[in-house]
Backbone:
């Protein structure tokens, strides 16, 4: 891949499974059949155990997954238009059994994302012949082969063969790069152009990859749903409760807001401070702004806004144990600073319970947090993250704005960024939420963390300390975090274009 | 007798649950109970929050529902090692039935004991994970009790009807469905079954080929595909039933006894979903008899699955770690009454330090778990060795804490177990949960080394529970 940039620590190549959306998109693109989630009802709900649902180490394979794959195979086999497919692939007009291999030589690369020459098609030809020998016609035999192919690991997983070479890292071959790019930006199989670029070596060069990235970013119909998945996982929106029936609106509005990263001239870091929110009428009412029409719209919200101020994101960051301050503080520490404090030791559990019981009945969340931070045993950790939540005090757990809490306490938005996150180590006060967001957007650690999460999303891998230099390189190439530059920097970086050698 | 023996279980209400071709799954076993004696089984049962140590010493308090089962139970208190990540109820819950510390929220440090044993005793058998709960917060592990060898979770099945589908159902309308019909129809069905088998064999060959010595994949990837292959094996007979099932041999007592045992209640509609399964700060209130009805249906399904030898390993859950269901209604036991407060047991009792009320709540929990054991112990359903299903099944009961978030003295018990375990109270012993879990596995002849992977120290001798 152009100039050798080692030393760096390549990511381990753990196979990852296609997500539900990726499976459905792939079937739609290869067969022109639009299946929906109802066609694979057994497939379990995906949960972002490692940050995003596409991250391999957090993916499980349970019997229900296998059931779901079998249901997908069944739905495909019963709906596929075999004569049309036969005419498109292999040129098998006469439906002669001798044509089966030619047919599979055309189909295999589409389903398994690898040229026919690199695939062993014998098992699938044999499966065809088994069906044919049972007295089925060509067109009746093909669905049985399809059933098998879409349940095969070559289809369900992104398999990336290791190339010959020296050293601990190997660049990906063209077909693997095409698949990585396609699933990263479009959540589907490579199209003709990507496969052609893989075949003629264009994906071996940074310029070639960059050209494909530019082309793919222009297709918003494929790109934007991928961005939706990012923000839903990042802000853990999928699991927010729906007691008030607003879950869909919270999700849609947050997604529409985040899409602006790709559709407008905004940088990733600008998203923290940009004083607007996408709100439906119900959400606008909660936000205290005058409703100006149906459906989700962009509103100016001087008191909040920005990525962290979207109601769906506020609901997501509050969606955890421990009360709003602790839940939000820990979320912000993790998603803005890529930092996590250790769990409280066993010996403190009794103290934590006593503490919770001993608080004045009408104390505000902030007063309780301040008492907590003043105690040595608690404050040594809570001081590191509780203050990160203070700026959001006026928003409740559904992202509704209020000025007093349920006890009548006035709510404030001043606070400070703990010294551990500030160069020099001195805590950094903020006057209100807009001031806080502006300061966050300037912090190097915040920028690095936001970029790290983007890299993790696009590579489908968790980054370790060893890959810190990848964040440096991406930030250097896209210092403002503008989406096209950011994506191009990640997708041309060795962290994306190489894999670690299997030991 | 041809295939169409779909049994519809119809309750007093309007909900019907399909129980298709039950005999297929009984026949899918290698004639287990009939020719090989009784299979080894291990079911874990979890309940949330925990018991005060003073209630764990006899049957006079929260454990009173087990009094009639005392000769078949071994009671212990264990130290549940602290997990390394996740908040309270999250980090400890991931250690229960596992023993190893986890390294990531929601992913355990190793397999749960039921899966460890399943790999040894029944690697191609099914696993059932089911129950009832409301959990708060973003930690999935609070409602996860079963883990694969790599620590990835097997989330619980929520609705009783889903349990039916999983344990007894088939996918895709394929082999086995349909009625008698003429010979050409039967022949077509046979052909379809043969082709399903060919598809599945080809797929399994593909997975295996990526696991062998020539595989280009690394150990972590191979482990993923191993998990995939195991999952296929678990439901292999549902994906591609053997075509002999088209000519089933009548085995009197087999099908009929299984069908007769299946639960016939219930109003198990979606209505209960919003009360009994979910996440969020505040669960809707549910009257305790309703909660009990849903749990007992889960228990009945488990009993049916065990009696029919459809499942040998897994977990039944009575409330997640953290216990946030909002029960209401007046409950009387132990000569006193309380009114469940309609706010989570966790907040009102545990954080509120209301021991009297908490004991009655836990009495309610234990009475339902005891119900499960009693159904397994039904002398009307003896197994080929003349023992009850409970006698022949190891049921490990466990919870997350002692009193109020204390990780020491978390109640654990073993019931049944084919004479492998002693009965009585051993709650005065100090032992780490790893000692207890290792002892349970040792009872099954498996010398496990739980704790080794994450260097958890042994703190006592769990073998005290062994016969």
Residues:
């Amino acid at each position: 891949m152009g100039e050798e940039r080692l030393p760096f620590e390549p990511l381990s190549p753990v196979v990852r499974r296609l997500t539900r959306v990726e499976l459905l998109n792939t079937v739609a693109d290869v067969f022109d059949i639009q299946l929906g989630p109802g066609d694979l009802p057994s497939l379990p709900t995906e949960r972002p155990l490692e940050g995003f649902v596409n991250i391999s180490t957090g993916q499980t394979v349970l019997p229900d997954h296998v059931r779901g794959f079998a249901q997908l195979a069944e739905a495909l086999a019963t709906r596929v238009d075999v004569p049309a497919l036969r005419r498109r692939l292999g040129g098998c007009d006469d439906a002669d059994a001798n044509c089966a291999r030619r047919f599979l030589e055309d189909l295999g690369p589409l389903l398994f994302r690898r040229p026919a020459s690199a695939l062993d098609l014998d098992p699938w030809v044999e499966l065809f012949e088994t069906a044919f020998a049972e007295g089925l016609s060509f067109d009746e035999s093909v669905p049985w082969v399809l059933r098998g192919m879409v349940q095969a690991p070559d289809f369900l997983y992104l398999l990336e063969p290791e190339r010959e070479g020296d050293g601990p890292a190997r660049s990906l071959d063209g077909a693997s790069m095409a698949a990585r790019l396609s699933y990263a930006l479009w959540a589907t199989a490579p199209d003709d152009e990507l496969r052609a670029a893989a075949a003629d070596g264009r994906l071996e060069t940074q310029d070639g990859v960059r050209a494909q990235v530019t082309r793919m970013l222009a297709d918003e119909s494929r790109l934007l749903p991928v961005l939706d998945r990012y923000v839903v996982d990042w802000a853990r929106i999928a699991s927010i409760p729906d007691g008030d029936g607003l879950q869909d609106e919270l999700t849609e509005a947050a997604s529409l807001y985040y899409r602006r990263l790709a559709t407008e001239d905004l940088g990733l870091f600008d998203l923290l401070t940009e004083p607007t929110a996408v709100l439906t009428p119900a959400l606008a009412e909660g936000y205290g702004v005058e409703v100006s029409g149906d459906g989700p719209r962009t509103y100016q919200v001087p008191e909040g806004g920005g990525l962290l101020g979207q109601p769906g994101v506020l609901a997501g960051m509050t969606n955890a144990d421990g009360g709003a301050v602790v839940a939000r503080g820990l979320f912000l520490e993790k998603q803005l600073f890529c930092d996590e404090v250790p769990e409280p030791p066993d010996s403190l559990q009794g103290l934590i319970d006593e503490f919770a019981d001993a608080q004045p009945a009408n104390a505000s969340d902030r007063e309780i947090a301040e008492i907590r931070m003043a105690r040595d045993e608690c404050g040594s950790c809570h001081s590191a993250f509780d203050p990160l939540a203070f700026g959001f005090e006026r928003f409740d757990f559904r992202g509704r704005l209020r000025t007093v809490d349920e006890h009548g306490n006035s709510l404030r938005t001043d606070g400070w960024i703990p010294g551990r996150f500030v160069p020099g180590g001195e805590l950094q006060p903020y006057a209100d939420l807009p001031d806080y967001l502006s300061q966050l957007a300037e912090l190097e650690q915040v920028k690095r963390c936001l970029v790290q999460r983007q890299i993790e999303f696009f590579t489908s891998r968790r980054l370790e300390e060893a890959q810190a230099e990848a964040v440096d390189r991406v930030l250097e190439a896209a210092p403002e975090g503008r989406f096209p530059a950011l994506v191009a920097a990640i997708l041309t970086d060795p962290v994306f274009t190489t894999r670690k050698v299997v030991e | 007798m041809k295939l169409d023996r779909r049994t519809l279980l119809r309750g007093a209400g309007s909900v019907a649950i399909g129980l298709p071709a039950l005999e297929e799954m009984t026949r899918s076993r290698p004639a287990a109970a009939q020719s090989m004696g009784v299979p080894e089984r291990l079911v874990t049962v979890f309940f949330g929050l925990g018991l005060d140590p003073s209630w764990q010493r006899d049957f006079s308090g929260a454990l009173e529902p087990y009094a009639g089962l005392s000769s078949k139970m071994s009671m212990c208190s264990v130290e549940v090692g602290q997990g390394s990540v996740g908040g309270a109820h999250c980090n400890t819950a991931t250690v229960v039935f596992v023993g190893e510390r986890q390294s990531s929220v929601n992913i355990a440090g190793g397999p749960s004991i039921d899966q460890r044993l399943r790999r040894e005793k029944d690697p191609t058998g099914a696993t059932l994970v089911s129950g009832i709960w409301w959990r708060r917060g973003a930690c999935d592990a609070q409602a996860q009790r079963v883990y694969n060898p790599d620590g990835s979770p097997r989330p619980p099945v929520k609705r009783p009807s889903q349990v039916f589908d999983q344990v007894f159902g088939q996918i895709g309308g394929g082999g086995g469905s349909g009625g008698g019909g003429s010979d050409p129809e039967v022949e077509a069905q046979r052909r379809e079954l043969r082709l399903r088998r060919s598809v599945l064999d080809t797929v399994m060959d593909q997975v295996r080929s990526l696991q062998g010595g020539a595989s280009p994949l690394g150990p972590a990837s191979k482990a993923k595909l191993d998990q995939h292959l195991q999952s296929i094996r678990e439901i292999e007979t549902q994906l591609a039933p053997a075509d002999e099932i088209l000519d089933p041999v009548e085995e009197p007592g087999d099908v009929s006894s299984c069908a007769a045992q299946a639960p016939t209640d219930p109003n198990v509609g979606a209505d209960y979903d919003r009360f009994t399964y979910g996440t969020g700060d505040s669960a809707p209130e549910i009257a305790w008899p309703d909660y009990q009805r849903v749990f007992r249906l889960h228990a009945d399904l488990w009993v049916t699955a065990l009696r029919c030898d459809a499942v040998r390993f897994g977990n039944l859950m009575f409330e997640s770690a953290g216990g946030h269901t909002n029960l209401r209604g007046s409950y009387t036991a132990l000569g006193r009454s309380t009114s469940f407060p309609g706010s989570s047991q966790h907040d009102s009792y545990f954080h509120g330090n209301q021991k009297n009320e908490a004991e009655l709540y836990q009495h309610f929990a234990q009475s339902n778990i005891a119900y499960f054991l009693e159904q397994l112990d039904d002398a009307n359903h003896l197994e080929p060795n003349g023992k009850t299903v409970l006698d022949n099944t190891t049921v490990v009961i466990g919870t997350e804490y002692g009193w109020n978030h204390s990780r020491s003295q978390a109640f654990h018990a073993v019931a049944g177990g084919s004479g492998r375990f002693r009965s009585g109270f051993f709650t005065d012993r100090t032992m780490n949960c790893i000692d207890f879990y290792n002892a349970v596995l040792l009872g099954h002849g498996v010398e496990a080394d739980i704790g080794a992977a994450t260097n958890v120290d042994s703190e006592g001798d769990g073998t005290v529970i062994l016969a």
User: Anything to note?
Assistant: The radius of gyration of chain B is 22 Å. The longest strand of chain B covers residues 42-50. Residues 180 and 386 of chain B are 36 Å apart (CA to CA). Chain B touches chain A through 73 residues (CB under 8 Å).
